Amino acid sequence: MTVQDEGTGPDRRTRVQGEPVPFCPPVVPEAERGAVRRITVVGEEILHRPCREVTEDAFGTDGLAALVDDMFATNQAAEGAGLAANQVGVDLRLFVWDITDDWGVRHVGHLANPVLDDVPATDRRLVEEPEGCLSVPGPYRVVPRLDRAVVRGRDKDGRPLVIEGRGYFARCLQHETDHLRGHLYLDRLARRERKSALQEMRDSQDEVFARRAAAARQVSGGEAGPGPPAVSGRAAARRPGPAARGRSRAGAGPAPDRCRPARNAGGRSLRAAGPRPTRSSPRSPRAADDHR
Question: Quick one: pLDDT at residue 160?
Answer without folding.
Answer: 98
